[in-house]
Amino acid sequence: MKYINHKLIGLAVATALFTACVDEYECNLQVEKPEEVAGSEYLATFDVLKSYISRDANSPFKLTANLNPSDFTAHEVAYSTIINNFDGIDVGSTTYMPATSVNDQGAYDFGGMSTLADALAGTDVTAYGGTLASYQGQRASYYAEQFEPTIIPYEPEKGRTVLFNFEADEIGTAYPMSGNSSAEVTTDPDDPNKKVLCVGRADEFASYSFAKLNVKLPEGRKLGDYVSLEFDMRVVDSHGIYGAGMKVYINGQEFNVGMNAATIGCNPNQWNRGAVIKMKDATAPGFVLPASLAELTEFELQVGTASGEAYYYLDNIYMNYEVAGTGTTVIDFEGDELGKTYPMTGNSSSVVENDPAGESGKVLHVGTESDPSSHSYPTFTLQLQPGRTLGDYTAIALDMYIINSQGIWGDGVRVIINGVEMNSGKGPGNFGCPDNAWGRGTVYIPFGTENGNGSVMIPEELKGLTEITLAIGAGSGAWHGYIDNITLYWKMDDTIIEKTPEEKADILTADMNAWIGGMMDAGGEAVTMWNIIGEPLSQTQDANTFNFGEYLGGDVEFARTAVAMARDTAAVPVQLFVSQTFEQTDDMASKADQLATLVNSYEEDGETVIDGYTILLHTVYSKDATIQAANEEKITALFTRLAQENKPVRISDLSVCVENADGSLIQAGQVSTDDRIYAGKYLSFIMQQYRTLIGEQNQYGISLSGLNESSSANKLCPWTSGWNRNLFYEGVVNGLK
User: Fold this and answer.
1) pTM of the model as a whole
2) CA dihedral sign of residues 715, 720, 724, 728
3) DSSP letter string over 527-588?
4) Which three-class secondary structure state does DSSP give residue 145?
5) How far apart are CA 227 and CA 221, in angstroms?
6) Is residue 307 within 8 Å of residue 208, measured between CB atoms?
7) Are 648 and 612 spatial neighbours (Cβ–Cβ below 8 Å)?
8) Domain for residue 150, yes or no?
9) Which domain holds residue 218?
10) Within 10 A of 102 (CB to CB), how many other CB atoms are there?
11) Which residues have CB under 8 Å from 502's CB, separation 6+?
12) Average pLDDT across the chain, whole number
């Protein structure tokens, strides 16, 4: 191996031509040449790199360099450098990856590979096509989206109930009024073939008086199912068009809808068809139907304009229902006999009695003055809503009446289901219950993700129940009071259809096939060597890491699937290698052993064939002699172990960096001439060890990591950023000899 004293280069090559420079000129003045000029002259004495390759006609050895295909197809300096010095290019493992090769439509874009294949046509340039399958460089977020369950939104049942259109009534049929005047069926003033209801008369306007319409809802419907009241209204002249506004009465309970007849859309002597009053929204025109009326199936309805001189027609009175996926299961004691007792979880008693406040019917009296409940709660057996499980329920609420502050604070309202006790963490007073009065609906306990802060968490093992034993009450050493309207709320969730393991596997194999097939089709006959599996030993976990093996039966099945796809897709015979990065800091022999073991496992089925290994070799020349000796030992051990497999071996992405004795890397622009020479010697050593230890028939070539250097980067290259040779060039030359 040559050793060059850079101080004597000028004398050693005094007659060399300036073949590495752009310009030539004559100079007769004999002076000592500057060092860099002498170096350039010396480097110009070398031939192009591939002229130094020692190989016979049957050798598979190729000298290549990593190059972005766009730099090759540009036909500029990089292109000519490849053509003159190398057998081909190495696309590299990261140039084309699924994560970075997607077009605006979300499909894979193989244009770069197609352009390269076209550029290679008719040349003897070899191209290595990059990686076809890996856990790295993947569209992990895309796969996560594809694996998301199919959600079918719950569609509320919607419909319309016709209450009155008066067509079946005889002309003159009278409906009762809430006050003066009259409401009679008559012909439509715009169409004598239709019947309508006339409220008020010319000789006696309806003065804050409304027609009383008795409604019976269809079987299975209740008033709480309805979301709006719809009707046609025609005001005679302007009688009642303003007044005190539109009103709705249900069983005599008044609701002000926030608009008058004019603002709801009426004009004098014209039909306002399809006027709508909302029943679950107070935004005008609308009101909120109270829960006390929600269960009605028969009721008295009044709707019209509140005025001292109302005179108008009504027709086509409808109610629109929308049965959302919600409901309640209620214990209200109304069906119980007075004096009925419910069991307690501990001491004291619970008895059905009349409401002491006279506000509602029957309630449950818990505890007594002399024997208050001490962390003891009334117990109920409850059948849940048909078709629902406990997991569909979202909350529980109850009315509480605390007697003389007994149990108003305590240590939390308890919910006990099938013996599992849950503490809401709030006493009745914390929920807002008053003393010696009803707190209606004030104790509302959501079913959340934890116990406490006013909520409880239903354990997973209880969520499938359709019948439960429920106990509830104030957690206190002395609770005395009444409870009523224990209400459990349920919600119909959207239908969630999870992807099955088979469906996930199908998604991945289809995408793998699209990528592998697309890349190989794009490469065509010009690219016949690929890394079928990339970085199988990698421990990297980042945003572009996706473990296919988790869904395809393991790492081995993933590899076998990829190999089968590639061979089935290829239009011409291809060679499929497994690639793995080796860093200088790795235990290279051990890592090679792991890689070989894995590749052998791929081939154990007798069908899968891996043609060879691609070793991405990142090395470091250390200025510490001891460390450098160890570095060289690792290289020897690596090739010794790989040779044992008797498979083709490619060295790819071969790089050398220089580090100080303290382990810090030196930027290429700061590497001294001596260090560059020694780094070149290390490169020569690596290449020669490969040529010596790997069987000649298995030497499939060496690919340099790059052509020209960036002064701020760490790796050394044979050419400067200005495309002049540097002393690292000689390291490549000596490695090839």
Assistant:
1) 0.66
2) negative
3) --EEEEEE-TT----STT---THHHHTSHHHHHHHHHHHHHHH-SS--EEEEEEEEETTS-H
4) helix
5) 12
6) yes
7) yes
8) no
9) 158-324
10) 14
11) none
12) 93
Q: What pLDDT score was predicted for residue 259?
A: 97
Q: Does the CA dihedral 345-350-355-361 come out positive or negative?
A: positive
Q: What's the CA gap between 613 and 599, in Å, rounded?
A: 9
For the beta carbon of residue 412, count every other beta carbon within 10 angstroms.
22
Q: Exposed, middle or buried by CB within 10 Å (0-12, 13-18, 19+), for 529?
A: buried
Residue 146 forms part of a structural domain: no
Q: Is residue 456 part of a domain?
A: yes
Q: Find out whether 489 and 326 touch, Cβ atoms under 8 Å.
A: yes
CATH number where 664 lies: 3.20.20.80
Of 170, 192, 174, nearest in space to 183 by CA: 174
Single-letter amino acid code for the residue at 291: A
CA distance 381 to 388: 16
CB of 736 closer than 8 Å to CB of 53:
yes
Tokens describing residue 685: 């050593």
Task: Tell whether the model's pLDDT for residue 3 goes beyond 60.
Answer: no
The first and second tokens of residue 622, run together, are 């250390």
pLDDT of residue 6: 38
pLDDT score of 27:
32
- Is residue 4 over pLDDT 60? no
Residue 333, domain member (yes or no):
yes
Q: Which residue has the tokens 């079928």?
A: 532
Residues 568-612 pLDDT 10s: 999 999 999 999 999 999 999 999 999 999 999 999 999 999 999
